[in-house]
C-alpha cells in the first residue's frame, strides 16, 4: 500500500488510534479524531498528555484507521511535528486548531468559546506526513 492510498482511505474516516513510543519502549495507544489536510494527518492534542510527551521525546508515530465494518484498515507511519501550544485567538496554532475542528465537524457555533477552550486545555496540533503505510483497503 502506498502512502497516497493510505491517505485516500484515511480521508474517508475521521477516527483512529495514534501509537507513540513510551520511554521504556512499549507502545502507547490513544483514540483520536483527526483530519487529513494538505496531505498530512492532523490531530488536536493536549499538552502534558502521554502521547504529547512521548512525541516530544521520540517523534516516530503511527496511526491505525479502520472502516466502520473493520474489513478495511490502514496503518500510516511518519514523523510527528508538534505546533506550539496555543496562547490566544491570534496565535497561529489557534487558526490551525480551528481548521482541524472544521474539517472534522464543520463550523463551530461560537469560535470565541472554542478559542478559549483551546487555551484553557493547552491544545496544540500534532501533524505528520505519511512516509510508510500498510494495511488492507
Fold and architecture overview:
- The protein has 137 residues and is α+β, with helices and mostly antiparallel strands.
- Helices cover 31% and strands 41% of the residues.
- The chain has four helices and six strands, in the order αβββαββααβ.
- It has helices spanning 3-11, 50-57, 92-105, 111-121, and strands at residues 15-21, 27-37, 40-46, 60-66, 73-82, 123-136.
- The chain has a six-stranded antiparallel barrel, surrounded by four helices.
- A hairpin with a 2-residue loop joins strand 2 and strand 3 (40-46).
- The longest helix has 14 residues, at 92-105.
- The mean pLDDT is 97.
Summary, kept brief:
The protein has 137 residues and is of the alpha+beta class.
**What portion of residues belong to β-strands?**
35-45%
Low-pLDDT segments: none
Q: Specify the number of helices.
A: 4
- Please name the CATH architecture: Roll
Calculate Rg over CA atoms. 15 Å
- Major beta-sheet overview: 6 strands, antiparallel, barrel
Mean pLDDT: 97
Q: Give, in spatial order, the strands making up the sheet with the most strands.
A: 1-2-3-6-5-4
Q: How many individual β-strands?
A: 6
What is the CATH superfamily label?
Electron Transport, Fmn-binding Protein, Chain A
Shape: globular
CATH topology name:
Pnp Oxidase, Chain A
Compute the separation of the termini in Å: 8 Å
Q: Helical content, roughly?
A: 25-40%
Amino acid at each position: 500500500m502506498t502512502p497516497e492510498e493510505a491517505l485516500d482511505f484515511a480521508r474517508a474516516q475521521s477516527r483512529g488510534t495514534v501509537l507513540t513510543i513510551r520511554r521504556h519502549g512499549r507502545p502507547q495507544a490513544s483514540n483520536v479524531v483527526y483530519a487529513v489536510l494538505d496531505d498530512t494527518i492532523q490531530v488536536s492534542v493536549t499538552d502534558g498528555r502521554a502521547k504529547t510527551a512521548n512525541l516530544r521525546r521520540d517523534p516516530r508515530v503511527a496511526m491505525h484507521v479502520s472502516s466502520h465494518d473493520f474489513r478495511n484498515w490502514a496503518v500510516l507511519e511518519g514523523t510527528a511535528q508538534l505546533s506550539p501550544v496555543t496562547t490566544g485567538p491570534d496565535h497561529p496554532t489557534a487558526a490551525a486548531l480551528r481548521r482541524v475542528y472544521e474539517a472534522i465537524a464543520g463550523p463551530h457555533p461560537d469560535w470565541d468559546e472554542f478559542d478559549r477552550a483551546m487555551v484553557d486545555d493547552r491544545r496544540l496540533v500534532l501533524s505528520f506526513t505519511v512516509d510508510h503505510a500498510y494495511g488492507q483497503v
